[in-house]
Specification:
Tetracycline Repressor, domain 2; 9 helices
Length: about 190
């Protein structure tokens, strides 16, 4: 006689990881709203109060998402630098553009940046993530302050251009070129 197996329950850590993955997409698209939290809960099959228990607050969920962005970018930087040791900075920039292509990473970062304007805890976490990524870039490339500042500026530009729908397939300079007035335009 076959016995029905009870459904396997996810651990809190598994639910947290699922919630962060969904929240990154939802928050990137809709912001950090109560409705967005309900969508996260619905998509992972739990109640909204359970999502709050996992993270403590909407802010806690956002901080976990910011940490995940940092982790993903750092992973991409390492893989890109290892794959192109002669020119790691260019490879890391290309990997970053690729990571942004889906819209989630850049959208989440823009939402977090907007919230950071009025929330010092979120602002501090954003600064921490940027500092870690700059240190990672310096360690992987040997770049100094000026090169790192340009790298950060290029990354911020890529986030902005991606958010407004500019085609980045041919690189940042080509994307900016599409925004410049054409010669035949007065």
């Amino acid at each position: 006689m076959l016995r029905a197996m009870a459904p396997v329950r996810s651990t809190a850590a598994q639910r947290r990881a699922e919630a962060v993955a969904v929240a990154m997409r939802v928050v990137a698209d809709d912001g950090l709203t109560t409705a967005a939290l309900q969508r996260v809960a619905d998509e992972i099959g739990v109640s909204q109060p359970y999502v709050f228990r996992l993270f403590g607050s909407k802010q806690g969920l956002l901080l976990a998402c910011i940490d995940e962005v940092g982790s993903r970018v750092r992973t991409e930087f390492r893989a890109a630098a290892a794959g192109r040791p002669g020119d790691p900075m260019t490879a890391m920039g290309a990997a970053f553009r690729e990571l942004l292509a889906g819209g989630v990473t850049g959208g989440l970062w823009l939402q977090a940046s907007a919230i950071a304007r009025r929330d010092e805890v979120v602002a501090a976490r954003c600064r921490e993530v940027i500092a870690v990524l700059l240190a990672e870039a310096a360690g992987l490339t040997g770049a100094g302050g000026d090169d790192l500042a340009r790298f950060l500026a290029d990354g911020a530009l890529v986030v902005l251009l991606q958010a407004i729908g500019v085609d980045l397939r041919d690189g940042t300079r080509a994307a900016v070129g599409t925004l410049l007035p054409r010669e035949d335009t007065p």
